[in-house]
Amino acid sequence: MSTEQFRSLVALYRSRQIEFNNLKPVTLAMWILESGRGTSGLATNHLNFAGMKYRSEISQFAKRVLYNAHDGSGYYCEFATLDDFISGFWAFLDRSPYEGWRDLGNDEIAFIRHIGGVWAEDPNYVSKVIQLLPEAREMLESEVIDVPDPVDVSEEEIEEAAGGHLMPGRPTIAISADGKVAMGGNGLEIDYRGVDSCPYGNSATNHKRRFAGLIIHHTSPQHTTEWYVQYQIDGDPGRGGHHFGYHFYISPAGLIYQGAPLTKRTNQISPSNSVRRAFGSHMQNTNSIGITCARAGTSTGFRPTDEQVTKVKQMVFALCDALDIPFSQVYGHGEIQSNRMRSEGAFLAEEIRAWA
After folding, report:
1. Is 229 exposed, middle or buried (0-12, 13-18, 19+ CB in 10 A)?
2. Domain boundary among 104, 137, 162
3. Backbone dihedral angles phi then psi of residue 24, each to the nearest 5 degrees
4. Positive or negative torsion for Cα 317, 323, 324, 327
5. Do both 148 and 177 map to the same domain?
6. Residue 167 domain-assigned?
7. Dihedrals φ, ψ of 214, to 5°?
8. Nearest to 109 by CA among 25, 17, 9, 211
9. Strands annotated E in the chain
10. Is 107 a member of any domain?
11. Residue 192: strand, helix, or coil
């Protein structure tokens, strides 16, 4: 059964006019699922019925609170009033990870399919929300709030609702409290090799910005993956000791190394307009993560191994999820830089952008 506080939220939502009134049932279904009908700690203590982590874009409606959730501690939204929660929820959706939802505002099923894969890690999240739609509609239509029996949803409907881009096994990445280390989960293993004292890309780090995208690279097959990681740390004496490299290296066998702390940026792409294409020109060393398939090629070309392809997809999926980066902001090095083979990273980036 729902709490009195949750029933008050439903009553307010029922009477309040919002831009997309037809999306009230599906969004209420999300709140039912996320808060356990108002019984979760976030709901009872912080009026957060949607499990929303704090983002600065909704600071006018919420403040930041440290909360120990089922998947660990993190900063979540705390709302002063139920009205602030409703306003904050819709402002939360108007952020870049959910871009495009407004075009689907007339179709609640298309809407939840579009945002569901970003909103929650559970691969069955969308189908669970759809199952709760009858209950949500009844709540909005009546002052009597009883919990009906769950409706049956066919396997075909669940498969269709889940969408085609959900990653098998749902690999995850959690960022350490100091912001430096990417810690893999659900089968994703990352060997951290970053060195705090290493300058990496000095100019990039000095002007660092929030990560806005990822660049996929191939590294020349002259050395081992571990050699390249160490080369990044040591710097190139032939270039005045400058540091070049990537945040993540993937070996031909699929081993993943983190070569630099995420608090630092790396010199992975050229900022020069003479070699940069218009496509992806907003990606710079200051705002992008570099992932390379190290020693991926042979003398006849650069094609990542099957193991590298799998790990790139898992890494990109988990990083985009952890850092709120849209899949549409993933590029191949050759797509954005004209002095590289255009195929470098392109086929993987194209496939990943199609997940959006």
Report:
1. buried
2. 162
3. -60, -50
4. negative
5. no
6. no
7. -130, 145
8. 25
9. 62-69, 72-79, 172-175, 182-185, 191-192, 213-218, 248-250, 256-258, 288-293, 297-298, 301-302, 330-332
10. yes
11. strand
73 lies in some domain:
yes
Question: Do 139 and 253 lie in a common domain?
Answer: no
Answer yes or no: do 35 and 82 share one domain: yes
155-162 vs 108-119: helix crossing angle, rounded to 10: 60
- Residue 183 domain boundaries: 172-353
* Residue 285: both structure tokens together: 């060393």
Question: CATH number of the domain that 133 lies in?
Answer: 1.10.530.10
**Both 332 and 210 in a single domain?**
yes
> What is the pTM assigned to this prediction?
0.55
Residues of the chain with pLDDT under 50: 143-151, 153, 155, 157-164, 299-300
**Rounded CA separation 294/217 (Å):** 8
Q: Same structural domain for residues 110 and 230?
A: no
Contact between 50 and 38 (Cβ < 8 Å): no
Examine residue 21 and state whether it is found in any structural domain, yes or no: yes
Give one DSSP letter per residue of 91-119, joined into a string: HHHTSGGGTTGGGGTT-HHHHHHHHHHHH
By CB atoms closer than 10 A (0-12, 13-18, 19+), residue 154 is: exposed
Asked if 228 and 294 touch (Cβ cutoff 8 Å), the reply is: yes
Within this chain, do residues 37 and 183 fall inside the same structural domain, yes or no?
no
**Pair (197, 299) in one structural domain:** yes
The domain total for the chain is 2
Q: What residues have CB less than 8 Å from 244, skipping those under 6 apart?
A: 201, 231, 232, 236, 266, 267, 268
pLDDT digits (tens, 9 = 90+) for 112-145: 999 988 898 788 888 899 999 988 998 988 643 3
